[in-house]
Amino acid sequence: MKTFQCDIVSAQAEIWSGQAAQVFATGVSGELGIYPRHTPLITQLKPGPVRVVDESGEEQFFFCGGGIVEVQPHIVTVLADTAMRGEDLDATAAQRAREEAERELADRTEALEVAEAQAKLAEAIAQLQALERLRKTVKR
Amino acid sequence: MASGKEITTKIKSVENTKKVTSALEMVSASKIKKSQDLMFATRPYARMMLRIIGHLGKANPEYRHPFTVAHGPEVKKVGYIVISTDRGLCGGLNTNLFKAVLADMGQWQKDNVAVSMVTLGKKASAFFKNINVEIAGHAQELGEKPQIEDLIGAIKIVLDKYREQEVDRVFLAYNDFVNTMSQKPRVDRLLPLPDTDDEDIRDIWDYIYEPDAETLLDSVLVRYIESLVYHAVLENLASEHAARMIAMKSASDNASELIDELTLAYNKARQAAITQEISEIVGGAAAV
Questions:
Q1: Which of B45, B245, B259, B268 could form a disulfide with B28 if both were Cys (CB 3.0 to 4.6 A apart)?
Q2: B-chain residues within 8 Å CB-CB of A108?
Q3: Are residues B16 and B43 in the same domain?
């Protein structure tokens, strides 16, 4: 059986790698069935299952929450997204990071107060230590 | 001279501190391995991605993505993504990184270039907000197993700024995990992306693109940048554990030393007390 190298990777782990006879995936413009010597193709994936038929004819199922597949005659690379993506979702995430920053900045006064309190505490400790030393020398 | 009781209380308290520090040391030591494994797991993705970017670049050399093009010679504003830890007790790890960032920022500020920053981790935001740096985005509590979806938002803020030409350079600052004993603060240029080496434009072939080359290149590059930042977060995490382990080890060693000294002092005090008692008894007996 003719096979090709197939790699399925996500940003966080290598999911599958090996020789495959066929790969099926859902591209943005339709279902893809990839056999050896496929013409070069690169496409975005829709969230959905990716099926790989390996050398021994066994089928493997993976779920991809979207991503990109690159097809070359002898190599197929699936870059799977671990996170759900989309213009809106990404924008919401960005908004959240922005709000997080604002919240951090709003804490400024509080942080200053804490710093001030810490400074006072350090001063008090230093005074106590000085007293302690004084007490010892007087005793002797 | 302090009495025996005072010294024993002191020894007890130092012993307790030592228990805490050596427990922390062991916890960190076990976490280093885990975060290193995570780090290695990201390598294949970045490698595949570079391969695809290389192919795309070769396949249509006329198209230049905004991320690969510098905004002209004049720089008005630069962006930083600074990765720090959430917690302290990790020696000079964060301080060294912030020093490196400040040095880098100083270079730009000398030329009146404004700075905008996105911080990942509590320590970075706490530090930079107090010196009045503009913080455009922030994320924290990434945990022991950082997830890429927690970073997407913060990264998007920077990428959008670059796209809209608001910032002209973007730098990524993090601690590089060299080995357990050493972590190196690094400030790397993230945008514009360095040119991929155009070795030879071989035979003319092109992909079938679905939907089109520009959209695809864009989504690949965004993911590539995210994976670079994600990798840096993991490097920083491994560095954090290593630095904490070393810091806690030296704290435990110091505690042991202190305990030895205190024990010696205690024994001396005890000896002195006994000697005094004996001499008093002897003196008393002689008087009788």
A1: B245
A2: 129-130
A3: no
C-alpha distances out from residue B241 to B51, B65, B175, B200, B238, Å = 32, 38, 11, 43, 5
> How close, in Å, is residue A76 to chain B by CA atoms?
10
Contacts of A83 in chain B (CB under 8 A): 147-149, 152
Q: What is the CATH number of the domain that holds B217?
A: 3.40.1380.10
Q: Does A13 touch chain B (CB under 8 A)?
A: yes
H helices of chain B, where?
4-41, 43-59, 93-110, 122-130, 149-163, 213-287
Note whether B151 and B275 are same-domain residues: no
- Chain B nearest CA to A30, separation (Å): 10
Closest-CA residue to B80 (of B115, B45, B55) = B115
Domain that holds residue B257: 4-24+247-287
pLDDT greater than 60 at residue A70 = yes
Q: Is residue B85 part of a domain?
A: yes
Q: What ipTM was predicted for this assembly?
A: 0.71
User: Inter-chain contact A92–B153, Cβ cutoff 8 Å?
Assistant: yes
Q: Output the domain CATH number for residue B273.
A: 1.10.287.80
Q: Minimal Cα distance from B226: which residue of A? A: A11
A 99-128 residues with CB below 8 A of B?
Answer: 100-101, 103-105, 108, 111-112
Residues 6+ apart with CB under 8 A from A31: A24, A25
Mean pLDDT by 10 residues, chain B (288 residues): 80 92 93 90 85 75 79 87 91 92 92 92 89 89 88 92 92 93 92 66 66 83 90 94 93 92 92 94 90
